[in-house]
Amino acid sequence: MRFAVAVLSLGLLVGAARAESPDSSGAEKLGWKLALQSWSGNFAPDSEHTVMRSLEYAKKLGIHYLEVFPGQKLGGKEKGSFGPDMSEAEQKFILDAAKDADVKIIDTGVIGLPSDEAGSRKVFDWAKKMGITTIVSEPEEKALPMIDKLAGEYGINVALHDHPKPSRYWDPEYTYDHIKDLKHVGFCADVGHWKRSGLIPADVLEKYGDKVFSSHFKDLVKDGGGMHDVPWGTGESRAADMLAALKKHNFKGPIAIEYEYHWDVPTLQKCVDFFNETANKLAK
Question: Which residues of the chain, if any, have pLDDT below 50?
Answer without folding.
Answer: 1-19
